[in-house]
Design goal:
Arc Repressor Mutant, subunit A, Four Helix Bundle (Hemerythrin (Met), subunit A), 2 domains, elongated
Length: 235
């Protein structure tokens, strides 16, 4: 049996069902489970150290998110994220992150602005040295700081979910040093617009940043990664 015991991770923030849901969702998004793979309640429950009930409830919730399809009398099967989903997520994020940057102009605190500035400086340091793993982590942190700065728990929740949906393939947006430098330059421009309290520019820059990230992802093989059976010539 896997050493992971989901019961040890239960906190005030999430119920046991919530923890099971997030663990299975993370496994789907990280590629542990593949498209059309069956998710069996008993083995998953054994792996996580829980009964079938929270697994079943988690699978139902994942079906509502479109990551799982439950077929009566057959079982639950992974739907996952496809290339069109990635496109849609980035276009939605471009609007939502633009809105978040606009609101950040009004609500960002000195502490958060300082954290954002430190993030940009550290990213420049690591990008110049080709430390791509650190760049990916700092990129994640920048967006999380921005989400908090928007001062809307509803918008922050939506953005974090969309951010997590594409974690598996987000490294492609920073797969080269040139894109890492360009991405961080875009972060800096967003930060300066927020610092200058220019909501129109902050919104435009944040939206463009997401579109640029998606365009670069396509250049780096997004559609190769998400080829369907039809595209690969399989039946």
């Amino acid at each position: 049996m896997n050493d992971y015991d989901v019961r040890r991770d239960v906190s005030d923030k999430y119920s046991l069902r919530g923890r099971v849901f997030h663990k299975i969702r993370d496994d789907i998004l990280n590629g542990k489970y593949h498209e059309n793979e069956e998710l069996k309640e008993i083995p998953i429950g054994q792996e996580l150290g829980v009964s079938r009930t929270p697994v079943r409830e988690a699978l139902r919730q994942l079906e509502l998110e479109g990551l799982v399809q439950i077929i009566p009398n057959r079982g639950a099967f992974v739907t996952g994220i496809q290339a069109k989903d990635v496109h849609d997520i980035y276009m939605i994020r471009s609007r939502l992150e633009g809105l978040c940057a606009r609101w950040a102009c009004e609500h960002i605190t000195k502490e958060l602005l300082s954290s954002m500035e430190e993030n940009v400086y550290l990213a420049e340091f690591h990008a110049e040295r080709g430390n791509m793993e650190q760049m990916a982590e700092l990129d994640n942190q920048f967006h999380l700081i921005l989400y908090t700065a928007g001062n809307s728990k509803m918008l922050e929740h939506l953005l974090i979910d969309y951010h997590q949906y594409v974690m598996r393939i987000r490294k492609k947006t920073l797969s080269t040093r040139d894109r890492a430098l360009a991405s961080n330059a875009e972060h800096r421009a967003i930060m300066e617009a927020i610092r200058s309290n220019d909501p129109d520019r902050a919104e435009e820059l944040a939206a463009t940043h997401m579109k640029n990230a998606y365009t670069n992802m396509v250049k780096n093989g997004l559609y190769d990664l998400y080829k369907t059976d039809d595209e690969t010539g399989k039946e």
